[in-house]
């Protein structure tokens, strides 16, 4: 394996030459501008390296990092879909990009926020949205704080929230942060929520409601969803929709019509905004009409005199973030909705389902699929393979073949889980390339398993001790 050189190691041991022409104005000594305490005494450690090598260095580094622009990125649960370049163009329009954060009531920006909220209401079957939360996780916490505020105002003491074992890990975490205890209900053999156990749990009397992802984390649409929300409402609870998996049902059905009272969205998962890398995100939260007073402030409302900003100071859960959230992300999502329109969004959802089922059917003879019926956007493989080959081995073998690996070891209810989600982004050629690689890896489990267990072999870095790498990373060597 080749050691990656830092740009400092590529610098030449030569006298630094300055090719910038001398200025034709008088210099002002730095000592007249800064005190000696603020002046550097040692030499700046800048590598002496020509421009073309600098460009090559960073271009080569970028090519070592796999991205959704490089090829299929089938991370289940994460929806790593392509980010259209028109989104980037609109987000960089000067009158959007150059708004100062203190210009809170810029009319164009306020109109975009209002229109995006209306579109999300129509798509999700909700009555109002806040676009303030800065990420899906913060949006999720927002929804649970609305749960809490709703019952506090009503004078009801609710201390528990039901979370299925097929939920995203942030669901119980957000509930605990808001001060709730968790009741976990295990999925049945079909990957769905057992109605009898749900009703039994709701009878406890101090249950605020249910958090549910539908389709859930194993890619199954719960066929009993109307009965589920009916049971929760019968006992005075609220139904929370984790919108991480909204992508496959776009234009086909709406969480509000299923009986959900609150929803958060991950704009990167469904509406094509950038995902990951520590950058800005957005987690809009939608509610039914009776929960509007509890939304974070401020809210954009329509009045006879036009759009206005309103604070529900007496009932709101408060402000979650400075200004209006990550506005550039909202511009990107609005662009995506306008570019596709209603029919385009529906086709995106349909193609995501088609692609996932094409992969599932193509692989299920060699790889065990615990929930092997028509899935939505993703499905889960149980990679207990011949000769002790496991999910991690398959993931590393895919990296060796210049493909990104699916999500490994999640959801936890499948022990050797590989969760595969191709999204609507990929065409049949790219899907077939992934299928071919997976079938080739399966043959290798029989003919050369030790080679698989010691991979990857074709990358700059071999197999790491994952725990040690996370806790004590060596970022230089």
UniProtKB/TrEMBL annotation:
Keywords: Oxidoreductase, Pyridoxal phosphate. It catalyses: N(6)-[(R)-lipoyl]-L-lysyl-[glycine-cleavage complex H protein] + glycine + H(+) = N(6)-[(R)-S(8)-aminomethyldihydrolipoyl]-L-lysyl-[glycine-cleavage complex H protein] + CO2. Residues 349-445 form the Glycine dehydrogenase C-terminal domain. GO terms for molecular function: glycine dehydrogenase (decarboxylating) activity. InterPro entries: GDC-P_C, GDC_P, PyrdxlP-dep_Trfase, PyrdxlP-dep_Trfase_major, PyrdxlP-dep_Trfase_small. Its EC number is 1.4.4.2. NCBIfam families: PRK04366.1 (NF003346). This is glycine dehydrogenase (aminomethyl-transferring). It comes from Candidatus Lokiarchaeum ossiferum. The lineage of its organism: Archaea, Promethearchaeati, Promethearchaeota, Promethearchaeia, Promethearchaeales.
């Amino acid at each position: 394996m080749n050691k990656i050189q830092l740009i400092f190691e590529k610098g030449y041991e030569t006298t630094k030459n300055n090719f910038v022409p001398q200025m034709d104005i008088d210099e002002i000594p730095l000592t007249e501008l800064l005190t000696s305490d603020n002046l550097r005494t040692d030499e700046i450690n800048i590598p002496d390296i020509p421009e073309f090598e600098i460009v090559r260095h960073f271009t080569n580094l970028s090519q070592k990092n796999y991205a959704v622009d490089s090829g299929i990125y089938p991370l289940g649960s994460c929806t790593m879909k392509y980010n259209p370049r028109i989104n980037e163009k609109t987000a960089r329009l000067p009158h959007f990009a150059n708004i100062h954060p203190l210009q809170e009531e810029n009319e164009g920006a306020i109109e975009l926020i209002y229109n995006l909220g209306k579109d999300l209401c129509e798509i999700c079957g909700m009555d109002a949205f806040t676009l303030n939360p800065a990420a899906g996780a913060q949006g999720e916490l927002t929804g649970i704080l609305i749960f809490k505020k709703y019952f506090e105002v009503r004078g009801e003491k609710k201390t528990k929230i039901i979370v299925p074992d097929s939920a995203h890990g942030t669901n119980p975490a957000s509930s605990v942060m808001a001060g709730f205890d968790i009741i976990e209900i295990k999925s049945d053999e079909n990957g769905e929520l057992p109605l009898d156990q749900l009703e039994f749990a709701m009878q406890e009397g101090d249950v605020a409601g249910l958090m549910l992802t539908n389709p859930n984390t194993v890619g199954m649409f719960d066929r009993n969803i109307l009965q589920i929300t009916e049971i929760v409402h019968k006992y005075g609870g609220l139904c929370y929709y984790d919108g991480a998996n909204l992508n496959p049902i776009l234009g086909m059905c709406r969480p509000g019509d299923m009986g959900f009272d609150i929803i958060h969205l991950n704009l990167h998962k469904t509406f094509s905004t950038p995902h990951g890398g520590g950058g800005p995100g957005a987690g809009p939260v939608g509610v039914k009409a009776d929960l509007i007073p509890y939304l974070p402030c401020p809210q954009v409302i329509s009045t006879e005199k036009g759009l206005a900003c309103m604070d529900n100071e007496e009932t709101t859960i408060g402000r979650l973030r400075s200004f209006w959230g990550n506005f550039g992300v909202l511009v990107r999502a609005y662009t995506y909705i306008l570019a596709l329109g209603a029919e385009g969004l529906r086709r995106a959802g349909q193609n995501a389902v088609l692609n996932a089922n094409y992969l599932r059917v193509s692989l299920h003879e060699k790889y065990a699929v615990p929930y092997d019926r028509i899935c939505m956007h993703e499905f889960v493989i149980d990679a207990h393979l011949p000769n002790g080959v496991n999910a991690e081995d398959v993931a590393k073998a895919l990296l060796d073949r210049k493909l990104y690996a699916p999500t490994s070891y999640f959801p936890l209810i499948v022990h050797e889980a590989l969760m595969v989600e191709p999204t609507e982004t990929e065409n049949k050629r790219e899907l077939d390339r992934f299928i071919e690689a997976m079938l080739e890896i399966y043959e290798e489990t029989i003919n050369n398993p030790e080679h698989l267990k010691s991979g990857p072999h074709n990358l700059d870095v071999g197999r790491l001790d994952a725990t040690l790498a996370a806790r004590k990373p060596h970022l230089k060597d």
